[in-house]
Amino acid sequence: MKMKNINNCGLGLRNDFIFEMPYLKQKPSWLEIVPENWIDTPKKYQKIFEQIANEYQLVAHGLSLSIGSCEPLDMVFLKQIKEFLNKYEIEHYSEHLSFSSLENQQTYELLPLPMTKQEVNNVCEKVDIIQNYLKRELILENATYYYVPSSTMSEIEFINDIFQKSGAKMLLDINNVFVNSFNHKFDPYKYIDSLDMGKVVYYHVAGHLEYKENLWIDTHGTPVKDEVWDLTKYCLQKHKVPALLERDNNIPPLDILMDEYNILKSIYDNF
Questions:
Q1: Does residue 244 form part of some domain?
Q2: What is the pLDDT of residue 107?
Q3: Chain segment 134-156, per-residue pLDDT in tens
Q4: pLDDT of res. 142
Q5: Does residue 70 lie in a domain region?
Q6: Are 83 and 50 in contact (CB under 8 A)?
Q7: How many degrees, rounded to 5, is the angle at CA 263 between CA 17 and CA 187?
């Protein structure tokens, strides 16, 4: 699948700089938004969001689907997502390969899945339900994890099995690969080589925190590390698809963030 009307490099839209967006001289090619933040748009942001939705191509990147939960999907929530996507004519919806709800209560955390054949089947069954309901291909993002109990598969086996058996496409978070490679002692380049890159439809690039000597955390709160830029180049060389700069914490002024966006764009344009 090639993403419709999504090309080149995008930026994750955040409230911290939303009111500055109309005044940008150089604009991102597209924006990624969190639908949960906009399903019931706060009145303060309603006008500016409508303006941005009319000006930019949008990709929705959700947080609360909880596709890996052992419980049934929340169809009330999924109905809200569908109505939102249709209202703003958003073609592409991505989510996290994780779970975030327990006994129908949101944890507001992206929790890791047990890497087992049973969980592969659980995810694949839910992908079918979601895609049939939304009338869109679902895009799933690889997550960071620090401890995963009861796993019987490696991460790469688990990931590949899901994307081979389901109809989902992949959002490859390059920083997540790098963070996991440090915490779990594997080669990130061999990981990329082992992926079916034909399933990848876009990339995330972000920063992380070197929290302790033996622990890095995917915070999205720092500039992108040089090693992650290098891994980004490797991914684009193998498979050039759109790429997005993501920043969620310690968000700098928009002009500084756009300087980092321009690094991504410069790398992207070289391939």
A1: yes
A2: 65
A3: 999 999 999 999 888 789 999 99
A4: 97
A5: yes
A6: no
A7: 110
Pairing of strands 105-111, 200-205: unpaired
- Residue in this structure with the two tokens 């302790």, named with its chain if needed: 212
Spatial neighbors of 210 by CB under 8 A, at least 6 apart, are 216
> Which residues contact residue 131 at a Cβ distance below 8 angstroms, ignoring those fewer than 6 apart?
137, 138, 167, 168
Asked if residues 68 and 119 have their Cβ atoms less than 8 Å apart, the reply is yes
Judged against a pLDDT cut of 90, whether residue 57 lies above it is answered with: yes
Residue 1 belongs to a domain: no
Q: Tell me how many domains the chain contains.
A: 1
Q: CB neighbours (10 Å) of residue 74?
A: 17
Tokens representing residue 17 in the block: 């700089």
User: Is residue 3, in this structure, part of any structural domain at all?
Assistant: no
CB atoms within 10 A of CB 104: 10
CATH classification at residue 228: 3.20.20.150
Paired tokens of 7: 């090309």
Has this prediction a pTM greater than 0.85? yes
Q: Are 85 and 60 in contact (CB under 8 A)?
A: yes
> Residue 149: which domain range?
9-269
Residues in contact with 234: Cβ distance below 8 Å, sequence separation at least 6, in sequence order: 189, 192
Closest-CA residue to 66 (of 13, 129, 15): 129
Secondary structure class of 158 (helix, strand, coil): helix
DSSP-derived pairing of the beta strands 30-33 and 215-217: unpaired
SS3 per-residue string spanning 188-247: HHHHHHHCCHHHEEEEEECCCEEEECCEEECCCCCCCCHHHHHHHHHHHHHCCCCEEECC
